[in-house]
Amino acid sequence: MNNETTVLKLNIAQANKTIRPGKLASHAGSNPKGESFGFTNFYMTRNGDPLIPVVGEFHFSRFSYLHWEEELLKMKAGGVHLVATYVFWNFHEEEEGVFDWTGNRNLRHFIDLCAKHELPLILRIGPFCHGEVRNGGIPDWVFRYPLEVRSNDARYLSLARRLYREISRQIQGTYYQEGGPVIAVQLENEYMHAGAPLDAWGYGPGQFVTAGIDGSPHLDELRRIAEEVGIRPLFFTATAWGGAAVPEEGTLPMLAGYAYTPWIPNQPPSREFVFQDLHVTPAEPVNYDSLEYPVAYCEMAGGMQVSYKARPYVPAESIEAMTLVKLGSGSNLLGYYMYHGGSNPIGQKSFLNESGLPKVTYDYQSPLGEFGRVGDSYDRIRAISLFLQSFGKLLAPMGTVLPAGQEQIAPEDIRNVRWCIRQKDGSGFVFLNNFQDHVDLPDRRLRIELDTPQGKVSFPQRGEITLQSGLSAILPFNLELDGLWIASATAQLFTRLEAGGETLLVFYAHDGMDPEIVLRKTSVSAVEASGSNGYVEENEANWIVRPAAGQQHQILVKTAMGRTVRLVTLTRAEALHTYRFDGLWGQDTLVLSSSHLAMKDEQLICTSPGQNRVTLSIFPSPSAKLRSSIGVLQDTAERNEGVFQTYTLDFAAFSPELTLTSPSDRSVLVTVPADWPESVSDVWLRIEYDGDVAAAYLGDRLLTDHIHYGQPWEIGLKQVRHELENHPLHLSITPLRQGTVHSFVNQAYVERFEGVEIAKIHDIQVIPHYCARLWPQVD
Q1: Mapped to the 3 state alphabet, what secondary structure does 608-657 carry?
Q2: Are the CB atoms for 705 and 695 separated by under 8 Å?
Q3: Residues in CB range of 531: below 8 A, 6 or more apart
Q4: Alpha carbon distance 21, 19 (integer Å)
Q5: Which entry of 289, 331, 455, 571 is 20 to 30 Å from 747 by CA?
Q6: pTM score of the predicted model
Q7: Mean of per-residue pLDDT scores for the chain
Q8: Edge-to-edge strands of the sheet including 587-592?
Q9: Which of 275, 302, 284, 303 minimizes the C-alpha distance to 472?
Q10: Does the pLDDT of residue 124 top 50, yes or no?
Q11: What whole-number distance in Å separates Cα of residue 567 and Cα of residue 368?
C-alpha cells in the first residue's frame, strides 16, 4: 500500500436529475389487489414509490421441477425481487409440431410457483434466445426449410406465430394485471448484434446463426404477432447493447456487463469497473434515447460459463464490485445473468448444448449453481439487496456526479482512485471501488471532503480511512432517517427495521476501515454508549459516534422528536451472513447465520453444508419458544448478543462412507449410501482432480460434466438419490496433455499435441447438508 493519503475533494453544486414520465409512462399497471408497477424516465416504481429491483435469471427447464420451489425460495431469501427466465424453443419443440410442456419443461407450473411466492416474472420467449443452447434455441428442423431465420421471412414468421401461440396458451391468465406474476416479456435477443453457433449444420466450426438484418421492424412484427395471440404484458423488454435494435414504443431497453468474456481472446482489463454516468452516456453505442428510460441491466455477470477453449474464473469480489459500480453510475435495475445455474436437458437426437461448451452443466459459477450450490457471490448480492430494500427509495432519484477525470480512467490504471457520488438536494452516497479484473489494485489510504449545499462533509472527521484491495463501498452523507440526520459515515448502511416502537439502523464495517457515524446535534437529544460498544465525542455541530463492530454492540440514540433509534454496526463477515425475512412469525426479522436460510409457510428453513452445529442470531426475538423439526435447539439467556437472541442447533453427525472402485487410472466408481437420516436433505461430492474434462454417469446416463478451470467439481445428489441404490456414480476424466496452455484465472486457449497425459482424481469429499425447520410454538 502507498503510505501517502489521497484526499478526494468534490463540490456538489450540480442540479438534480430531471425526472419526468419518459417513454414507458403509459405502461404502468396494477393488479386486482391494487398493487402497481410503473416508470419514470429514471427509475421503476412500485405502488408509486421509487424502486431499484434485483432481477435473478433462472432457467426453469435447466433444473428439476421437483425442486423449483425450494430454489425460488433461496432466490427470494438471497434478495431477488424479480425472476427472469428463457423459454427455449428447441427444448419445447425438438420435433416439429410436437410441443412438450411437461416435467422440467412445465412453464405454467413454474409461473404458478412464482405467483405463490410473490415473485414477479420476466419471460424471454425468443424465437431466438441464445442462452448457450444449440442454435441459440432454434430447433434443428427449422434449418431444413428454405427460409431466413430471425427475419421477416413469411415462413419464419408463421413458425414464430405457432411458437407464440403455444406459449400464450401456457401463460393465459398469469399477467400481472390479471393477478399473476408475469410483468414483462422479451421478444428475440441481441437482435442485430449477435448470433450463435449454427450446430444444426454440422459442417464444422465457425458457422453462425445470423444476427438479423431487418432491424426494429422485425421486433415490431414479432410484437404484433405476440399481441395477436394474446401475449400482452405490462411492458416488453429488449437487449439493447452492442447497437442492437430497440423498438420505439412500449419497450424497456436493457444492458449487459461482463468482465470475464470468453468471446474476447486474451481479454484485456475491462471498463466494467470504471464509473460513468450511464443515463447520459451508455457504456457502448445504443439505438435509443438513454434520457427517456431508466438505466436497466438484465445481464450483469453473475458468473460465466466455461467453454472448452476459454475457461474464465469469476471471483465473487468482481460481481460485488460491478454491482456497486453500476449503481454508482446510475443503474436503477440490477439483473444478474445467471443468478441460478442448471443442467441442459438431453435431447431426443442430440445434446442441446452450444458447441464448445459442456454438454450438460450450465453451472455458470453463478450465486446459485447447477444443483443449487450456494456460492460466495450469493451473500454479496444479498447484502446489496438488503441495502436497496431499505434505502433504494432514497437512492433511485439521485443522479450521478462524476469527479473530474473519472470516465477517462484506464482499466489498467492502479494510481487513480475510482469513485463517484449519487445525490439529490445535497444528500446522497459516495461510491468507492478498488477492484479491477485482471489487475491487482493497491490498498488505498483516503480522505474524502465534500462541499454540499448543506455544508461540508468529510470521511472521516479526522485522519483517513483504508480501502483494501478488491473492496468496494457505499458511504452515506446528509441523510435524514427516522428523524436522525446522518452527516456522514465510514460504515456502510445495511438495513432498517422497526420493532417495539423503535427503529434499528444497521450498518456494517468494511475490513480495515474504522467505522464512524456522524450525527447532527440538531436531530439528537441523547446518545448512549458503554465502553464496550464504542465511544462518542462531540463538537459544535455533531455527535461523532465510533461504534465497536459486532452484533453484540449497540449505540442507543434518542432523536430530537423523541424516537428511539438503535445503531448496530456489524462486521463485514456478519453482514455477509445476514438474512432479512419480512413477515416471518408475524414480524420483519433479521437472522445472522453461517447456514443457508429460506422462509416457507411461516417456517425458517435452515440448511448447513458439512457443519452439524448451527448458530442463529435473531432480531427481534420470537414471541414464543422456538421449536425445531429435528436436532437439538438451545435458547439460553447468556447467549444474547446485543439486540440479537442467539440459538444453537445441533444435528446428529452423519458421515456417509463412500466405496471407491477404480476400473482405470482415469475413472472411479463411487457407491454413495442412499439411506440418509431425516436431518440430511442432500449429500454433495466435492472432487479435486487434474485433467481436461470430466463426466459423471449414473448407469448409462450422463448426469453432468465439467471442463476443468482450476476450481473443484461439485455434484449434488438429492435429485438422483432414488437411483443411487442401483447405480454407482461413475466419474471419468479425459486427460490433459502435459504442456498444454491453461490459465485458470483468466482464460485458457487449449493447444493439443501428443505428450504425457495427466488424469488423476486427488480427493473426493462427501458433504452432508443438514436441514431443519424452525417455528415458534403456539400454546
Answers
A1: EECCCEEEEEEECCCCCCEEECCCEEEECHHHCECCEEEEEEECCCCCCC
A2: yes
A3: none
A4: 7
A5: 331
A6: 0.97
A7: 95
A8: 578-584, 587-592, 613-619, 645-650, 632-635
A9: 275
A10: yes
A11: 32
Instruction: Please answer whether residues 198 and 226 qualify as being in contact, where contact means their C-beta atoms are separated by less than 8 angstroms.
Output: no
Q: Determine contact, residues 641/554, Cβ cutoff 8 Å.
A: no
CB atoms within 10 A of CB 205: 9
pLDDT over 80 (residue 640): no
Contacts of 412 (CB under 8 A, 6+ apart): 268, 269, 436, 439
Q: Residue 45's closest CA among 27, 63, 59, 68?
A: 27
What mean pLDDT is predicted for residues 469-473? 98
To which residue does cell 454540499 refer?
A: 452
Q: Which amino acid is at 654?
A: F
127-142 pLDDT, tens digit each? 999 999 999 999 999 9
Residue 662: enclosing H or E segment and its boundaries? Answer: strand 659-664
Q: How far apart are CA 326 and CA 114, in angstroms?
A: 27
∠ CA 767-769-775, nearest 5°, is 160
* CB-based contacts of 643, cutoff 8 Å, min separation 6: 504, 554, 566, 568, 619, 620
Quote the CA–CA distance of 478 and 551 in Å, as a whole number. Answer: 25
pLDDT of 758 = 86
Q: Give the tens place of pLDDT for each residue, 491-535.
A: 999 999 999 999 999 999 999 999 999 999 999 999 998 778 999
Q: Which three cell numbers stand for residue 368?
A: 446459485
Half-sphere exposure of 477 toward its Cβ, with a 13 Å CA cutoff?
A: 28
Q: What whole-number distance in Å separates Cα of residue 329 and Cα of residue 267? A: 23
Tell me which DSSP letter residue 439 carries. Answer: B
pLDDT over 70 at 637, yes or no: no
DSSP-derived letter for residue 263 is T
| Contacts of residue 462, Cβ cutoff 8 Å, sequence gap at least 6 | none
**pLDDT for 92 beyond 70:** yes
Asked if the model's pLDDT at residue 743 lies above 90, the reply is no
Q: Which of 51, 61, 67, 112 is nearest to 88 (CA)?
A: 61
Which position has the grid cell 454516468? 277
Element (H, E) at 688: strand 680-690
For residue 497, what are the CA distances in angstroms to 480, 486, 500, 554?
A: 15, 17, 10, 14
Mean pLDDT, to the nearest integer, of 325-346?
98
Q: Collapse the DSSP code of 120 into the 3-class scheme (helix H, G, I; strand E, B; otherwise coil) and give the result.
A: coil
Residue 754 in this model has a pLDDT that exceeds 70: no
Cα separation, 757 vs 760, whole angstroms: 10
What pLDDT score does 267 carry? 84
The count of other CB atoms within 10 Å of the CB of residue 213 is: 12
Per DSSP bridges, beta strands 603-609 and 613-619 are unpaired
